[in-house]
Design goal:
The chain has about 325 residues and is an alpha/beta fold. It has 10 helices and 8 strands. The chain is globular and about 55 Å long.
């Protein structure tokens, strides 16, 4: 595919990774897109994902579908989810804004927690859209944790890429979960660590109310870091020995070289807690199936451009450009 993507030119006030990250998370935005249809996607016998679907008129089967997956403690309502949805919908895509398990206040739809290795959930969504609904062109895009999940799914397909899976996009994917957990423990990342841990513990408390026999509050101690949460909660809930064992199995890094589906991967070299070194170690740029873009600036899932309009949130527009080109190929 011959697709020229314009380089990222950061907003002049946001050439610092932390400033870019925080601005992207909290900047108020307005969105112009039709109201979605809520839909449950069954991913296991007793588990569903809650999606918000923006169907083109007539729900045409020949129109491409873009499925969006958010990051840790995000939801289908995260700004970047709405931003990509708006851009893609106005370009003729059906768009599905998915909540990961328990997110978007969907804790009652599954007895489990969620984790960064549950790529089978997105294969199940793909199967439902392709085999169940009959869509012939399906794309996935994920941010951060969601980026790891969709990249992992692509790697697990390896060379047996389903015909309907036309492309995958990953923005600042947490390919090496251990490296990300370590980076969060730096002093300068205290704000992010506290935000993630607070959200994870609140979600765990809601699960305890729904499933008190499965989720105990006693004996947890004081969880201060994401790694501690994964050590005492995530790992035992999903049968891993500890957080490190979970990270090794759940990281897309271990299957990155198997990716054969067309994949756009965008990261920033100044991302505060997804180390650029993890992409170098994984030799992402050596895989011909991956279009790898790593500007010096961009923060974590920020990429606020100096340009206005559709280009203001640069990575969102690049996802749409990439998917449009693949759909037309």
């Amino acid at each position: 595919m011959d697709l020229t993507l314009p380089p990222f030119e950061p907003h002049p006030l946001l050439r610092n990774g932390h400033a870019m990250t925080i601005a992207a998370a909290f900047a108020p935005r307005r969105f112009d897109i039709r109201a979605p249809e809520a839909r449950r996607f069954q991913v296991e016998r007793d588990s569903w994902l809650l999606g918000h679907c923006h169907w083109q008129p007539g729900k045409r089967k020949d129109a491409p579908v873009l499925v969006l997956v958010h990051g840790l403690e995000g939801s289908s309502d995260s700004n970047y989810m709405r931003g990509i949805a708006e851009k893609a919908f106005h370009c003729g895509f059906h768009v599905v804004r998915l909540n990961q398990r328990n997110c978007g206040r969907s804790e009652a739809l599954t007895p489990t927690l969620y984790n960064s290795g549950m790529s089978a959930d997105y294969r199940a969504v793909f199967e439902e859209l392709s085999n169940g609904d009959g869509f012939e062109q399906i794309f996935f895009a994920g941010y951060s944790m969601g980026g790891n999940l969709v990249a992992k799914m692509a790697g697990e397909f390896s060379s047996a890429v389903p015909r309907a899976l036309r492309g995958v996009c990953a923005v600042c994917p947490a390919l090496d979960l251990a490296a990300c957990a370590d980076a969060l423990e730096r002093k300068e990342n205290y704000f992010y660590q506290r935000h993630f841990v607070s959200g994870l513990m609140k979600r765990y408390a809601r699960k305890h109310k729904l499933f008190p026999e499965r989720y105990q509050l006693n004996g947890l101690g004081l969880v201060r870091t994401v790694r501690e949460f994964d050590d005492v909660i995530t790992a035992p809930q999903f049968g891993y020995r500890n957080a490190q064992d979970y990270y090794e199995h759940a990281s897309a890094e271990r299957v990155a070289e198997q990716i054969c589906a067309p994949l756009l991967m965008i990261t920033a070299q100044d991302d505060p807690f997804v180390p650029y070194s993890s992409f170098v170690r994984a030799r992402i740029s050596d895989n011909p199936a991956i279009r790898f873009i790593a500007p010096q600036h961009g923060g974590h899932c920020g990429f606020i451009s100096k340009h206005g309009g559709a280009e203001r949130f640069w990575a969102e527009q690049r996802i749409v450009d990439f998917c449009q080109a693949q759909a037309a190929a």
